[in-house]
Amino acid sequence: MPLPTDAAALAALLPGTWSVGATNSPMWLGGDRLRPRFSYELKSADPLVFGNIVSFTRGDGVEKTIVGRDRFRADGFVWRGSRLLSFVTSRWSVIGSTNDSNIVAIRFTKSKLSPAGIDVIVRDGMDSHAFRTAVAGLSESLGLTQGEFASLTWLELAD
After folding, report:
1. At 111, phi and psi to the nearest 5?
2. Which tens digit of pLDDT belongs to each residue from 25-66?
3. Which run of H or of E encompasses 12?
4. CA 112 vs CA 13, 90, 116, 155: distances in Å
5. N or C, where is the chain less crowded by C-beta within 10 Å?
């Protein structure tokens, strides 16, 4: 699929709930934040704004959420947290997706609270084996370099 960089393509691509299936982000690799999921809700098409809920299960089994908004700029999105996290921002962009729009690769830039990284997200319903096979076969079209692909850790997909 061509890289979805315009607002209309991204507005069609992102809404819904996604599981993080592969990552090199320390946020998801420390063992204390399991089965991360992103939910995007279109708030405005012009300018493009998504409501965003990041959810995960802590190591003790407690479900946690982080709420924010994603505003599209010419070179990607700016995420801003809400409530206590309203001072926190990060920048991210979609670097590729599969033709069926069920797998998306996201690149995060370094922020005050986290290093740069890659998350590969998948829509609910895809099993882990099919996901890994698809990403391995399509890593270039997902915008991943060989080094980035090699740096990914595969996560257990959320139920």
Report:
1. -125, 180
2. 999 999 999 999 999 999 999 999 999 999 999 999 999 999
3. helix 7-13
4. 28, 8, 10, 25
5. C
